[in-house]
User: Fold these one by one.
Assistant:
Number 1:
Amino acid sequence: MKAINVKNPIPAKPEEWLREIAEAYCDARDAIPFAELIDDKEEFDEKNIFHFAPGVCLKFRGIRRTKNIIEQTTEAALSSYVATQDKAAVEFESPVMAFAFCYVASHFGLGLITEEHGYSIIEFVEVRRAELIHLIDDEKNKYDTTWNNPGNRKAFHDKYCQWEKRQWLAWLKENLSFPFDVKRMEDEDDAYFTDIARHEPFRLGRTFSVLGMSSEDDLRGVFVKVKEGRKTGHVPLCDVEVTSRYNPNYWPVKEYVVWFANR
């Protein structure tokens, strides 16, 4: 089978799966009204929200939605659901658990996780079901991205006014969770005109881990301590990007980078 191009890596820890499933569920729930517009003969509500799991899986992994991929993912999720329905009838009465099962099964169908790994995720979710429901229902966890919409100048202006008053070093220390991975998107001039970035760590295009905050200066802004392999160093936070939008550090870093570019 041809390898699937996955832009966004799968969660590495059970807790990360729990949070992502909550985000995926909210994404699917927001899509219910639009599904009814597409097919007015079918009634959609949270009781059958598990049908949305394959599509949300593809969206969250950044996988191109070809006909074959959609069919493969949907078949894996729904056939697994049907095969397990008798054994898990009580669990599947919960729309949240039915969705979680199909979301994980979609990853298995794409070959992104093993069957054993899939069952271990579902077992963890079942044990932490109350926490999952809390994450879904907690409106505070919903990040307002309207400022990032190019067409919404007012939202950007309002956000920028907040940024201008912000003590960035203190705010970042409070809102970032370390360590986390980033990719360097900007660099010194030599990285653009030579091949130096290929041979030196922390340079343009390279991926490395941020270990913590470092310092701040007027010219380059906030610096962070980073690690690539066995080497450690310091780079300007304005030069990096958290590649996955579903990493909790994505938006705090994005806010800083956008503010720094527009100051």
Number 2:
Amino acid sequence: MSQSHRVVWGTPKSIADDLQEWLEAGACDGFNLLFAHYPKPLEEWVTMVVPSCSGVVFSAPNTRARRSARNLGVPIPKNKFAPNRVSVQVSAAASND
């Protein structure tokens, strides 16, 4: 019983193709995985399904999230913990070791 969750099953390639179709159709912007038990299904997902993905499914999650927020008209809030976007080079001598 899926309890209102979409259930996918099949070969690793057919699962990867199904996820890809959903992403390319704009039906979603990512996926939450819910396994009935752990760790075996997660291990199988990582070793069998992930390698079958073309790379588009799991690539650049931050870019995809920003794009999705923009598509919905949701402003991306500024990070209060990073007031500027300037990179700072820290020397090894400045460490607390």
Number 3:
Amino acid sequence: MNPRIARVHRRSDRSSPTAPPIAAPDDAPAAPIPSNPFGADLHKVIVDNMADGVYYVDTERTLTYWNLGAERISGYSAAQIVGRHCYDNILAHVDDQGRSLCHSLCPLAATMLDGEPREVSVWLRHVGGYRKPVRLRTAPVRDATGTIVGGVEVFSDASAVVQAVEDANRARRDALTDELTGLPNRRMFDAALSGRLENLGRYGWHFGLLIVDIDHFKKVNDLHGHATGDAVLEAVGATIQGAVRAGDVVARWGGEEFAVLVEASDDPGLRETAERIRVLVAQSEVRREGVSVVVRVSVGGALAATIDTPESLFARADGAMYAAKHAGRNRIEIAELI
């Protein structure tokens, strides 16, 4: 016990057994506020450790900050990014029609011009070469006078939801996924296709089937080896997965073929998804051992009819895919309704 407090208590005890507690003098120093363990960098520590990607650019569009979330989502480290310009097209943002945003349609540049926040869905190019869907939000940064001095962009990974991850993990345990790409395999896809056809007949829930085949895949293996071929399969599978909606099913059918169940009620809806897949794959690349490999895909599709069986629907979509091959590759064909 503090000796000074102890003496006061003894005097109080002698004067009154029920003496009130002694108040601190008015001029007593206030108790110190615990110091911030991070010092002036507290906000930076918080932003650095956000799950979302965050980066800042000045009015010259020079990237001066790149957090850990951005590293995790894009694969690019801060050392690779900071000091460069966002119009250097490092992430090569494109929209769902494959249009480049970095030079003419950049949401962050537009926000710094008019001061209006924006929120859009885009596809960035991961350091691994494949396309990853992200949801990005932009905001202007102003100084004390209200002048815009830069812009901040926050982007989040939009390629999966928690339930999808849980379903994929469960499917993997049940040996229903492709070992190389991590996508559902043919066995799981067959079950999903049968279920969709049953729902079409019972509830009228329309859907379509797309068959996606990598053009000239044998040449990739012959020129660059099977390890690069496997990397191409992984990249194409990841790009297709990022190009479809949450309710769609993407599977590796076998070899260089992928199959996609698409929630679509008409030909334009199915065609739109097929074209998005084709465009995004064409703008992806695989980088391996100093070599960059770009591939194209041919896509065939068919809308399911109530009289379809799994075999008849697949035959129509597969026939459309071969028609796309014969017409020159890197294109889509949709079979006529029956």
